[in-house]
Amino acid sequence: MRTTMLWLVTLLCLGTAPVSASTAAPAANPTTEDQKTFYALGLAMSQNLGGFALTESEFEFVRAGLTDGTLKRPHKVDLQAYGPKIQQMKQARLAIGSEAEKKAGAAFLSKAAAEAGATKGETGYVLKTIKPGTGASPKASDSVKVHYHGTLIDGTVFDSSVQRGEPVTFPLGDVIPCWTQGVQKMKVGGKSRLVCPSDLAYGERGAPPQIKPGATLIFDVELLEIVKR
Predict the structure, then answer these.
(1) Is residue 94 part of a domain?
(2) I need a labelling partner for 23 at 20 to 30 A (CA). Which of 8, 138, 165, 195 fits?
(3) Of 142, 159, 199, 220, which is the active-site residue?
């Protein structure tokens, strides 16, 4: 029973509505607080769809299922039969997407490693000095204060202390391996670009919704300080 309920919750988290684009209602523009809350509900539900890489036509069936389920209309498929296939489809599509990400990432890493001044670490990360530092280099056991700007290989920003206007401090051994290894090669006061293959970042899991499984990440890092504990 618990497994069945999990599949029901998963299905409801997938969203769904009109069957064809020709009969679909115009895109809603929320104005009242209730409308904005309903819209936020849709945004929250959409985060469960990222791994499916749905086409527009596929999404019409997802919307149709949500409409029928929510409005208590007759179901067009047996949920007991098709519920387990949801996760199977998601895993299959995630695997395809991950391989595509890793292939694109490998090409990006090769290009980055060929740039003047770039060095490739033994584990596969690429480090390029933008501004040499003059201070000490941290150890993996140190805490560091940094500014960073993180992007995907297409330039999409997924995290940035620079944009927030506030540097961050953390133990260097408690972050992704690419950071632990690469930042040790920097000196205080320096700026570097760190290109991280997926196996040194978030791997096959990714960090949805921004970071897909298998994604290569780029960080522009400024090492401000080695923080004494």
Answers:
(1) no
(2) 8
(3) 159
